[in-house]
Amino acid sequence: MLEKTIQQQVEKGTMLPLMEEFYTIQGEGYHTGRAAYFIRVGGCDVGCHWCDVKESWDPEKHPPTGVDQIVVNAAKYSKTIVVTGGEPLTWNMEPLTTGLKNASLDVHIETSGAYPLSGHWDWICLSPKKAKMPLPEVYEAAHELKVIVFNRHDLAFAKAESEKVSSTCKLFLQPEWSVREKMIPFITEFVMENPEWQVSLQTHKYLNIP
Questions:
Q1: Is 39 annotated as contributing to ligand binding?
Q2: Which of 136, 151, 152, 190 lies most in the core, judged by the most C-beta atoms within 10 Å?
Q3: Is 26 exposed, middle or buried (0-12, 13-18, 19+ CB in 10 A)?
């Protein structure tokens, strides 16, 4: 009966499979350099072969945790909260974001956009993946488009994706970490030819922080 109750709470979003939570510096995209508290939720079936947190994919490996406790933990550290995964939109984000907003926190999400948008967000970073493309509603709501560049074909993919977001959406290209030295010259050339784009680097890895 207890397991059934927990599963029901996970389905409602009042509990989430929490992989980890930590206070650090945002290393990517528009908010690079800002202190932020990260909430990493388990569960993802998008399946990027270069994913650097594959351990997040199986939600069964991460304990269901009450969102009230997650909010209490987050509020101790930072005004900026980043919900990431895994793929956080696998779950109902309404209870978590309601709690975070009630605590007067700025709430960001990093998502592939492959699932329906739920929750209340101050900033939506959309990072589309070819294996499971974003839903139209997420393109429309995105504040930031961040395309991971693993090969040169991803530059054409990025340009096509930029046509699906709003005119005010910030555009970023980020080299996949394992091929960064190979891809950075192509990215910088692309950005110089297409100045509406910006370069994003995983600066937290250069700083040797989480």
A1: no
A2: 190
A3: buried
Helices (H), 67-152: 67-75, 94-102, 136-141
119 belongs to an annotated ligand binding site = no
Whether residue 27 is annotated as binding a ligand: the answer is yes
pLDDT score of 156: 98
Rounded Cα gap, residues 16 and 51, in angstroms? 21
| CATH number for region 16-206 | 3.20.20.70
pLDDT digits (tens, 9 = 90+) for 71-112: 999 999 999 999 999 999 999 999 999 999 999 999 999 999
Residue 169, annotated ligand binder? no
Any known ligand binding at 203?
no
For the cut 90, the answer to whether the pLDDT of residue 1 exceeds it is no
Q: How far apart are the C-alpha atoms of 175 and 54, rounded to whole Å?
A: 18
On whether 51 is known to bind a ligand per the annotation, the reply is yes
pLDDT in tens, 122-171: 999 999 999 999 999 999 999 999 999 999 999 999 999 999 999 999 99
95 is in an annotated binding site: no
Task: Confirm or deny that 40 is annotated as ligand binding.
Answer: yes
